[in-house]
Amino acid sequence: MSFIINDKVTWVGKIDWELRRFHGHEYSVHRGSSYNSYLIRDEKTVLIDTVWKPFTEEFLENLKKEVDLNDIDYIIINHAEIDHSGALPELMREIPDTPIYCTSNGIKSLKGHFHQDWNFVPVKTGDTLNIGQNELIFVEARMLHWPDSMFTYMTNDNILFSNDAFGQHYASEYMYNDLVDPDELYSEAIKYYANILNPFSKLVERKIEELIKLDLPIDMICPSHGIIWRKDPMQIVNLYMKWAQAYQEDQITIIYDTMWEGTRRMAEAIAEGIKNKDSKVNVKLYNTSKTDKNDVITEVFKSKAILLGSPTVNGSILTSMVAISDLIKGLKFQNKKAAAFGTYGWSGEVIKILAENLEKAGFELVGQGVREQWNPDQEGLERCRGFGREFVESL
Ligand code: FEO
Fold first, then answer.
1. What are the tens digits of pLDDT across the range 149-191?
2. For the domain bounded by 3-243, which CATH number is listed?
3. Where are the domains of the chain?
4. Distance CA 33, CA 64 (A)
5. Nearest residue by C-alpha to atom 1 in ligand 1
6. Residue 18 Cα to ligand 1 middle (Å)
7. pLDDT score, position 25
8. Domain 251-394 = CATH 3.40.50.2000
9. Ligand 1 atom closest to Cα of 35?
């Protein structure tokens, strides 16, 4: 399949409706994804990015229907990660001398992955490539989200090929933001930001400020995953700016795992206490052993505060809580508050461990946490309600 975007640009990527896990098994993609590759035909012919390796054969077959590969003058690799560069080795087998434009870090990554000394042309921010009526301008986007990432801007048509930035793991044959369900699009875009770009929020903010200073009019944003932003494309840039600035909603998320329901009952009593004190706050509860971890992360991203709970097990906490704590730490959330809770039988390390995890993750601890022995009785549950009330009061 290919898709005409305008008289010069054609989408030649792959929509992956089957994909449910990305980055190995690490990232859930409930709505599939796409690997967007773009073919520009001006006086020169340019290919921007390729697709993930398993789709190499059909990518090349498709591309050959659009263009004689020998007519491709330049390849631009905005980002060397395999979901965009996977088809490059086979493509280069057919057109081995074609210059590949990418950042100097891109060269390192591509060499590291494919061990080939192709005809690389390193580019920096502000470098341009004249392709006829239009010009391509390169903008490095280091750590958004890899050291090699960059954007390519096409003049006259005013298209920003932004690679991963502004993308979503969202398969849709509609292709454009004004045609898809806006709620689905929003939920995939925010999940993508929370799980991939959040640790680099300071850089996101700076990069957007830099883009604004460059004063490049943007009529369309063509990311490397998901749909193209053509109606009010700056809406996603504005959302990124908001998300990059320690984003939070009036939400508290309670994340726990439980062995014999004691910690679950504590979680629900704490939620009750919170709601008693503040009926407007959106309290959400997730059992980590039953909930997709990337969806939980999206809820953490939206929260002003979180509570982590677990039973004490073998002097530690349940493994699903170890995993989610570590994931939260790596994503470097800003300006969020937190507390710990949990049950125990004898040694009772749960609060200490979860509080340490939260501190290491950069959360501001509120209160001492609450711990109940065995399964909480009515008195214990009332203590949890009281804890919930105090917690929300102190935010
Ligand atoms: Fe879509 Fe960073 O690769």
1. 999 999 999 999 999 999 999 999 999 999 999 999 999 999 9
2. 3.60.15.10
3. 3-243, 251-394
4. 23
5. 164
6. 18
7. 87
8. no
9. 1
